[in-house]
Structure formats: C-alpha cells, structure tokens
Design goal:
The structure holds two protein chains of two kinds.
Chain A (H helix, E strand, L loop, with lengths): L2 H7 L4 H16 L9 H9 L1 H4 L7 H9 L6 H34 L6 H32 L17 H7 L2 H12 L9 H19 L3 H19 L19 H22 L3 H11 L7 H4 L4 H15 L16 H19 L13
Chain B lengths: L1 H28 L21 H16 L3 E5 L8 H4 L9 E5 L5 H13 L6 E6 L19 H4 L3 H12 L2 H13 L31 H9 L1 H6 L19 H16 L3 E6 L10 H11 L3 E3 L5 H4 L12 H12 L7
Parallel strand pairs in B: 1-2, 1-3, 3-4, 4-5
Helix pairs in contact in B: 4-10, 10-11
The chains are: A mainly alpha, B alpha/beta.
Chain lengths: 367, 341
C-alpha cells in the first residue's frame, strides 16, 4: 500500500484511541484493572472528545474510575481549567502559528538560506512544535477540568530540562510513560545486561519515532535521541534531575543555565530531522548550519515580534515551572483586576492573530 | 456552578459586547451586499463584491422584465463582448444578459446553464468565453469572493452567508473598512482589502444587460495611450508556446458535454471562444481536441500568439482585453474570414 495513501485513509486520532484501548486491554490482562461491564463508559474512555485530536494518551486506571464516579461541579477546578485552556490557546495561536510562518519558508527553501537563517528556522520550529503540541494538550486538559475530569499531564515545561533524560520526562509524558509501561519494562527495561539496556532503549526511541509518522526522518529523530539518551542510562545518570530547575530560586545558576541551553540545542537539532521532508534534506540542513555566519541568528532573532511572544511565554512558564501549567497560579495572589487585565491581554492577543487570516482574498482584481 | 457561570458571563461580557457590536454592524452595513436586495447599478461599495452573486441577483431581478434568452457566459473578460455589439449578430427577438463571474470556470458556466434549463428559461443564443488560465476547474471556489451563488451551485444558503459573515471579522479588513467608512479617504494600506475608488469597482453600468463599461479607462487610452501604457506593468512573456499541462479532466469533460446537450436541446445558436491573452500561451492540444470534439465548428481558439494577443493597446492591463478585440472576434466567429489569422 502506498504510504502516502495511508495518510488519507487513516482516521483522525487513530494513534491516540488505539493506545487508549491497548492500555485498557493490557491492564486488564495484567489484572491491574477490572474489566468494565459498562460499555458506555468504555466508549467514553476510548473516544472522549478533548483527547481525540492530540491526546494526552489516557490510561484506563486513571480515567475509567473518574467516569464511573458521579462528578460534581468543582469551582476551583473549573476556573483552573479555563486558565489552562486560555494558556493552551495562546501557545497554539500566538506562538505556534506565528513561529510556523517563519519556520516553514526556511525549511522549504533551506538550500538557499544562510547558516543564520537556518538556525532561526530551527529555533522557531522548536517553539512551533512545542506551542502546537503542548497548546493542544493544555486545551484538552482544561476542557477535561471543566467537565470534571483530571487528565494526565502531557508537557511539563520540557525546554527547562537540564539533560536529555529530564527532557523525556517532561515531553509528551503520556506517550513516553505508555511506551515505558507497555514496551520498555516488558522488554526488560533497565535490568539485565548493558546490551539489553541498549537494545531496549533503541527499540523505545525508534518505535516512538515511528509512532509520529511513516517517514525515515521520524525514525532518524528517534535514533538520534536514543544516542543522546544512551550514555545517561548506561552510566545511571538518567534520574539525576528529578526536581525543578532552580528550585526555590528565581533564576537558574550559571551551570543550570548552560545545561538548559545545551539541552535545548541538542533537542533543536533533533527537530531538524523531525521537520525535514527526508533524511537527505535533514543532513543538508545540518550541513548548512556549519558556518561562522550562524552567529548572525542571535541578533536577527531579536527583530522578530514572534521571538518576543516566545520570551513572554518562557517567562510565564519559568515562573510557573513547579506548577501544572503556565497559568495555574500566575498572578493568583494579585488583585483580581490585575489578573483579569492580564487574561484580557492574552485573549486580545489571541484574537488579534486569530482574526487575521492572510489566506483570505478580498480583492479579485483592481481595475 | 451558578457562581462560575455568573463570573464567566461577567468576565466575557466586554468580548461579547464587542462581538455583538461587530455582528450588528455587519447586519446593518451588509458590506458585501449579500443580505438584502440592491440596485447594483447605483452601488459603489467599499468592499469588493462577489461578482457571481451580483450577476445572478441582477438576473433574478431583471429577468421578469426583460425575459432574457441570449447569454454571455465567462469570466470578467466577457466585458470585451458588449451586448450592444453582439446583438448585431443575432436574429430578432433577442434579449441579452451577460451572465458572468470573476474567474468563471467550467463548473460555474455549467451550473448556470443547468439552472436556466431547469427553470425553463430559453437559451436562444449563447457566447461562452473560456480562458486558458482560469476556466478549467470543476469545483466551486472556496472563500467569499469567487464562490458561486447558492442558487446555481446548490450550496446551502446558510453556509454561503456564513462565509461572508466570517470574513467580516478579519482584523485587517475591519480596520480598513471602518477607516474608509468614517474618513471616506482611500489609503494605500487598504489596497488588499478595499476597492480603490479611483477605479471602476466592478458593478454593472447597464442593469438591463449586466454590462460593465470601463469608459474611464477607454477615455484615458484614447486621450493619451503612451502615458496610459507607460504607467502599467505587463508581465514578461515566458516564451512558452503551448500549455504543457492538459487541464480538462473527466469531470470537466462531463460538464462540457452536458453544456452541449442542453444547448442542443434549446436549439441554441452558440459560439465557444478561447480568449486571446497577453501571455500568448496556446491551449494544450489535448484540451483543444476535447473542446473541438465536444463543440465542433462552434469552437474558436484565439489563445497563443496572434494579432489580438500581440499588441498592448488591445488590453486594459495584462489580464483584460478591450471591446475592440471582442468586436473583431465576434465579426470573425459570426462572419468567418479565412485569412484573418
């Protein structure tokens, strides 16, 4: 079958609800969970609408008990849900969609771009994919809270990670824990010989890459992260950073700052494979980065308004890095008027960008 | 929950008020002239209107009075075929209507002809103008500007209206529109959103035939052609002689044969013309064969390099040729001259 045809034939969300049902089946088999006799609850678990498009990937052990239980309205949870939806919308509409307008042309015309431009493309794509994915997750989780559900967290400020292992504990958490529980651990996990650990690590990352799409670039992306992750797990350093960066402090130390910067850079390189059309283009893109002009990106990036929105997002999320989401307690101690003005600024910014569809044509011909 | 709902309503009240105000403005101002009935002859709208909608509404309004039986179908390039000149080639008892649409495609012509047939409107004469670069498509357009009237396309009227309503909320359009409405001054930043009042805005000058006369332009050309064309930019010709892409697919072929079937049913005296465009790219031979097989000797191909497409003075600008070209074409297709090309 033509792989391209698969993209048309497969229904939306299949990778998410397939994993929902798999987790249910496996947990029942392992006797971790009683099989449900309520088919309505089961179908609701499989296909609950906020999760259909982009997760998070729920577990029967987390969601089904919530479905069985009679839910009562929780004011605090509902308002928190509204804040999370707002933040998710901001990340999707303001951050992701605007970063895409910069990243897309650069990736499409990378052959003629300078090293500085290529680096800009990679940086903006890194924030595009984060804004997109985590934005959708925040909206889904926020809607869940409005409905009285507590879905699993999916992104926990991954770009503040100090090493790759921490990054993978913070990025697409629901998928990674799914692979850990249903693939990595059954394969033996970190127990056994070093070769077994290497094998298991590679399997997880390659399968994770393949889950994202039927293209060698995703496999390459997975393999790249496996190579980065391997030394940490072989030397037992994969659980070095389990707390929050700069815990209890406002700013990171110089060491932490460098660790965060290096981790972001390594992840950003991986995104080049993720975004490229094919492996050749990915390597050509990387080759294009190797030039002294790459440093021009550092001052050019300041000229993009999108960059400043990213800075705002990073500041808010840094201040909330020990919380569940970017607006969980942000300004909650301030007077309501200050909070509402801030929320309205976000809403108006979202509307400002949302209501400007550049593809709409208003003039057919001006005589 | 009551407390939450109350707080949410209060919080969103300013936004709701803003949205409601814009909605009320939309219904009062009707910027795209799709909500109510208009005399388009006297309209000078700020926003560019949907040309297909205007044409069809004009037809619906005027047909009871004029009982049209002769039609010019095609894109805005049909402005070169003046009904007042076309009538010289028609036998008696004609009543002409220019049933055009901007960027008209085969789908649009097919649905219009089908509509006329389904409503027992006689098609005594027809002049179908096709253009290599815009006619060969079998779908309705998306977006508000070129979308077909729901009467002919059978699109749900509500969805059709919603498209315009949605577009009104475009941030840049709203800014331009209200700036123009209040200050009545066209500014350069509006060029992608509003009609430039210095130019003809595309509403018909003659309601009875739906004719658009670019008299202002004609006068500028006649007064000082050198100056007129000096200010205009014509694109570089690519040198491409034949269109390398065959554009007529099976669905369009089906539509073309349906058009022929209906015209034959009405015993229509018709001609199909492929426009002479400044680009001078000849219609793909496969497409020409399909059209020849379908319409036979009623098909006239003026695409490519010829006396009509050569000289800039035959064009208002790079896209639209002048009525003097339309007149020459009509004299050829109705009274053919073997040595003309």
């Amino acid at each position: 079958m033509n792989i391209k045809l698969l993209h048309l034939v497969l229904p939306v969300g299949i990778s998410f609800y397939t994993f929902h049902t798999l987790s249910y089946t496996i947990d029942v088999y392992r006797r971790k969970f009683e099989p449900t006799k309520d088919i309505t609850s089961f179908f609701l678990f499989v296909s609950i609408f906020p999760l259909a498009m982009a997760g998070p990937i729920e577990r029967a052990t987390n969601l089904l008990p919530q479905i069985y239980k009679r839910r009562t309205f929780d004011y605090a949870q509902a308002t928190d849900g509204m804040r999370q939806i707002l933040w998710g919308l901001f990340k999707k509409v303001v951050i992701a969609d605007n970063c895409a307008t910069i990243a897309n042309p650069i990736f499409e015309g990378f052959e003629n771009a300078s090293a500085g431009t290529l680096l800009l493309g990679a940086i903006f794509f890194s924030f595009q994919i984060y804004g997109d994915f985590s934005g959708y997750s925040d909206m889904a989780i926020g809607i869940g809270k409005l409905l009285g559900f507590r879905f699993l967290n999916n992104f926990h400020f991954p770009y503040f990670s100090r090493d790759i292992a921490e990054f993978w504990r913070r990025w697409h958490i629901s998928l990674n824990t799914w692979f850990r529980d249903y693939l990595y651990i059954p394969l033996g996990g970190s127990h056994g010989t070093k070769w077994l650990v290497v094998r298991n690590t590679f399997i997880i990352f390659l399968v994770s890459g393949f889950w994202h799409g039927a293209n060698w670039t995703f496999i390459a992306w997975g393999a790249y992260h496996a190579i980065l992750f391997l030394p940490l797990i072989l030397f037992g350093k994969n659980r070095k950073y389990t707390n929050t960066a700069a815990e209890g402090k406002y700013l990171p130390s110089l060491k932490e700052f460098c660790q965060i910067g290096i981790t972001f850079f390594l992840v950003m390189i991986g995104w080049i494979f993720f975004r490229a059309e094919n492996i050749t283009n990915a390597f050509l893109f990387l080759k294009g980065l190797i030039h002294w002009r790459i440093f021009s990106a550092f001052y050019r990036v300041l000229m993009y308004k999108e960059f400043w929105f990213v800075v705002v997002m990073l500041i808010v999320e840094w201040l909330q890095r020990s919380k569940y989401h970017g607006l969980e307690t942000f300004l909650l101690r301030c007077k309501p008027i200050i909070r509402y003005v801030f929320y309205y600024l976000i809403i108006l910014t979202i509307l400002w960008f949302f209501s400007n569809n550049k593809e709409q044509q208003f003039i057919y011909f001006q005589f | 929950m009551n407390r939450f709902i109350k707080k949410a309503v209060l919080f969103f009240a300013p936004l709701t008020l803003l949205f409601a105000s814009i909605t009320v403005c939309y219904f009062i101002l009707d910027p795209f002239r799709v909500l109510y009935t208009y005399d388009f002859n006297n309209e000078r709208p700020i926003a560019q209107l949907n040309g297909d909608f205007v044409s069809t509404e004009m037809f619906l309004k005027m047909n009871p009075k004029y009982h049209y039986n002769s039609f010019i179908f095609g894109s805005s390039r049909t402005l070169a075929y003046l009904p007042d000149h076309w009538k010289d080639y028609l036998s008696n008892n004609y009543s002409i209507f220019r049933f055009n649409a901007p960027g008209e495609n085969i789908y649009g012509i097919y649905t219009k002809i089908k509509y006329l047939d389904n409503n027992n409107i006689p098609i005594k004469n027809a002049l179908i103008i096709l253009c290599r670069n815009c006619s060969f498509s079998d779908k309705n357009y998306t977006g508000h500007l070129l979308r077909k009237h729901p009467l002919t396309s059978q699109e749900n009227r509500l969805f059709f209206q919603l498209e315009f309503f949605k577009v009104f909320f475009n941030r840049d359009f709203l800014m331009c529109y209200f700036d123009m409405l209040i200050n009545k001054q066209y500014k350069s930043y509006m060029e992608n959103y509003l009609n430039d009042s210095r130019f003809e805005v595309g509403c018909p000058d003659d309601n009875s035939t739906n004719t658009m006369l670019l008299t202002g332009r004609e006068k500028m050309i006649m007064d000082n052609p050198k100056k007129y064309y000096a200010d205009l930019k014509f694109p570089q010709r690519t040198g491409e002689k034949n269109d390398s892409v065959s554009r007529i697919n099976e669905k369009q072929k089906m539509m073309l044969y349906e058009i022929k079937k209906i015209l034959d049913k009405h015993n229509t005296e018709y001609r199909v013309v492929i426009s002479p465009l400044y680009e001078q790219i000849k219609l793909n031979p496969k497409d020409k064969k399909i059209l020849d097989d379908c319409f036979g000797e009623n098909m006239y191909d003026f695409s490519g390099k010829n006396k009509f497409s050569e000289d800039r003075i035959n064009f208002y600008e790079w896209s639209h040729y002048r009525p003097l070209v339309g007149d020459s074409i009509m004299s050829e297709i109705y009274r053919p001259n073997i040595d003309s090309l």
